[in-house]
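Q: How would the structure tokens look for this protein?
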Amino acid sequence: MRGEELEIPLGKRTPKYRFFEMLPAILSYGLLLVPVVLSMFSPLIAAIFIIGYIIIWFVKAVGIAYRTIQGYNLLQQAQRVNWLQRLNDLGNPEDAVKDYEERSHKGEWRHRTHYRNLLQIAANRKAYYSPAEVINAVIVPFVKEGPEVLEPTIESILRSHYDFKNNMILIFAYEGRAGESAEKLAQHLVKKYGSKFYHAFAVKHPAGLPDEQIGKGGNINCAGRELQKYLEERNIDPDKVIVTTLDADNRPDPSYFAYVAYEYIMSADRRRHLAFQPVSLYMNNIWDVPAAQRVLAVGNSFWTIINSQRQHMLRNFSSHSQGMGSLLDTNFWSARTIVEDGHQYWRSYFAYDGDYDVIPVYVPIYQDAVLSDTYWKTTKAQFTQLRRWAYGASDVAYVAKNGLGKHSRVPFWGFIGRFLRLIDSHVSWATASIIIGFGAWAPLFLNSESSHSIIAHELPLIASQLQQIALVGMFITIFLTFKMLPPRPARYKAHRTIFMLLQWVIMPVTSICYGSAAAFNSQTRLFLGKYLDKFDVTEKAVKQ
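A: Here is the predicted structure in token form.
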């Protein structure tokens, strides 16, 4: 598939497309009604359903706890690797092989894999790029963020263990609708930092372009096309360029760009069929945000850690990297959706007829948790962010259209697995915390005959006991959170640490009031055809 075939339809949808837009809401509301309807007719059947549902999630909770520990350990090990040295080894594999044969690298993470990679390159140099040939192009989009947000991001890039002077292009993608102040800031940043990179420039995204939603997709799309012109003018092979999108508040781990370049080189002829996904940790300002936002930020951080180990579930999310050649094949990112990151996975998947994967990069990109200048604004901004993420349910119709149509060329069973997981993730997002929290009480409240049913009386107790056992996973999360927290700022006293512990009692409330509510909001909009047509920029204030 190419060009317009990859785009979300504009205007009126076909009945089939509308059905699949409505499907997540139909399934989510339907699943909530199941324990209600069953309770009215048979408390026993309702109890069996609810216990079965909770047991399924109990098993999932055990898996999540295991993945959380495993993911944390992977991050620790990967961050200890000298990725720049490994990257440079690929440019001189014969000497690196000798070094590996003469001295032990036993304690290093995946040292055997690196050794095999060196042998591969030494045996067939022409099949792989040299590290000196590969360029990282970094696009930093912004609207109203100021230098207090953007400059720490640039400084973090400059702390990278990477030759950014010879192998990195920096692009500031600013919105024309933000006015003259954004343009002045972009030009100021280019002037201040441009000399430190191979090249740096600013790109203005004009307001009001046809067939575009107001959002990040159109902005980075515009920047990508300017990058294309720059590469063509200088005869730079697009397959030798890795493009990374970084939000204004993103601070990559120092080894990120070397790590990605290493994986990209080793991808050889599959480089166009891959994206590279780091772990997003919402920890930059974690000490400053209110308790509810801290719980959500930590939960979202561990969600990305867990997903990094489930490659069948891994999708482009937030900041990620993809080869320029791949972006050309997909006509860059979609400007018609407010969830351009996850949607880019599906565009690429269909562009390559299903031959597309996302490779986990086990080092973090640190991001801000949601924070505004008042508590109410912060609460509202947090809900808006989660609603935007949950609007990824809009991909269900797009995926069904391209994967179930008569012209689909993706492998059927592989596609069905991905499609069902996509639906399940959005339905579970909306319903799981509500059913687990309140489902066990449904028979007692909705059917007077339940007063004579032993199982209906015992159901809340059984559910409570299973939930208490599952709390082990939360204790693991709390323990690992304290190990990952940045140092407590001097402006906070020691009791702030105690609040960091006590905050977890509100997790059930945040799961329902933020997670479920945001998911139902997005799915209901899709059901009614009241589409989100604007990317609401998340407020992330900086406390001094």
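Residues 129-372 form a domain with the Spore Coat Polysaccharide Biosynthesis Protein SpsA; Chain A fold (CATH 3.90.550.10).

The chain has a mean pLDDT of 91.

Upvote if useful.
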